[in-house]
Predict the structure of Dipicolinate synthase subunit A.
Amino acid sequence: MNLSYFDFAFIGGDMRQIYMANDLLNQNYSVIAYGLDDPLLDSRCKRSPSFAEAMNTSQIIITPIPVSKDGMHIVSIHPQSDLTIGNLCNLLTAKHKLFGGVLPGDLKNHCDILNICYQDLMKQEEITLYNTIATAEGTIAEAILNSTINLHDSSCLILGFGRCARTLAEKLKGLCSSVTVAARSPMALSAAYAASYNTVNLSQLEEKIEEYDYIFNTIPALVLSKELLEKTRQNVVIIDIASAPGGIDFNYAKEIHRNAKLCLGLPGKYAPESSALALNNHILSNIRKK
């Protein structure tokens, strides 16, 4: 059987990978996909009948962000029973170059042993920084959807002051919110103060927590405990964008009727096309350098 060869193979994915494939096709690259189908996917994209064919007909393999949520199955909007990390490992060869986000340790170890070139897109600083834009905008969208009051002139608390928190604070400030940053690090508190935000040390949060209409958590560890949740306003909106399981006692929040929501994957949900273009720019730049 004669097989055509393609510039890129997409294995699984969400709407970001749909837009990535379409953008590459518009740049006259050839694309094959497995476990990725949607009415929005360009008809010029070859829908592979098998995992093996997609892998065997392209050197550049693009996987989702994250590649897997359970460490076993590859994320896909068009799930296939054989879309697993194990099968991906079995089909990868030294000719391949693999791109994906939050690559599982087993997958990276396999690539290292077989000398397979790979890149974790979420370890790339420019992508991480660009991602904060869509994350911040998605966070604000979730806050608006879950609240009955304006962000304008509201009192907002941001827990942490890393990359996502900084972009979120800037966007909230632009919407005329009063923004307070809570952190432990003196450096983070100083940076927040220098950017003209109110600040509070996390150790003193109990004294201030009842003042806020919105609370945004970016810290991937338990921050809002039962004791702190009890002191929040009854109508507070709490949006957690930290890595699962987040930094909030969600069971207790539900028990005391607080509106708390863990919001993951916001770039893929709210800005898949913009995110796709940024990812493609990085991947194409990386390939051309080689």
